[in-house]
Amino acid sequence: MGNYDDVTAVLDTTAGEMKLEFFEDKAPGHVKNFVELAEKGFYDGTIFHRVIPGFMIQGGCPEGSGRGGPGYQIKAEFNDVPHTRGVLSMARSQSPDSAGSQFFICHGDAGFLDRQYTAFGRLVEGDDTLDAIAQGETLPGGEKSSPKNPVKINSVRIERSQG
């Protein structure tokens, strides 16, 4: 694995910026996967396609539908990081080892996800942006989580601190 201890990601969205730090010691494969996808521009132009206030915002689907991914899946790295507000975690299907590119950021505490989803980072700047995305109006139907005016991820910038 690479050394991602001093690496952060800045999500530049149409609602503002969010800065994330990573937990390489807890989920090295997920950190590596996210950073590599970001550096390739995979997330650029994607949207937050699932938004549930008080729970989470989800993005990273290349189709914007919640069904797309990078064409591969990665093995789960469940850990003891609690799913509290601001925690970055990987979305997946019912299979534990089905994560690919979709991620979510907790908007509220979600302890029922602990040790069932791979937490691999946390929000360190941009709490107001998280709120703005989570509070957006959603369309009726289903779980009412499809945003009426989805927030776009313009780019994900990977930053490495020197020193």
From TrEMBL:
Family: Belongs to the cyclophilin-type PPIase family.
Organism (species): Engelhardtia mirabilis
Catalysed reactions, as listed in the record: [protein]-peptidylproline (omega=180) = [protein]-peptidylproline (omega=0)
Molecular-function annotations in GO: peptidyl-prolyl cis-trans isomerase activity
EC number, UniProt record: 5.2.1.8
Top-level taxon: Bacteria
Region (Disordered): 135-163
Gene3D superfamilies tied to this protein: Cyclophilin-like
PANTHER family for the chain: PEPTIDYL-PROLYL CIS-TRANS ISOMERASE-RELATED (PTHR45625), PEPTIDYLPROLYL ISOMERASE DOMAIN AND WD REPEAT-CONTAINING PROTEIN 1 (PTHR45625:SF4)
Protein name, UniProt field: Peptidyl-prolyl cis-trans isomerase
Start and end residues of each PPIase cyclophilin-type domain: 12-158
InterPro entries: Cyclophilin-like_dom_sf (IPR029000), Cyclophilin-type_PPIase (IPR024936), Cyclophilin-type_PPIase_CS (IPR020892), Cyclophilin-type_PPIase_dom (IPR002130), Cyclophilin_A-like (IPR044666)
Function: PPIases accelerate the folding of proteins. It catalyzes the cis-trans isomerization of proline imidic peptide bonds in oligopeptides.
GO terms classed as biological process: protein folding
Pfam families documented for this protein: Pro_isomerase (PF00160)
Keywords, ordered alphabetically: Isomerase, Rotamase
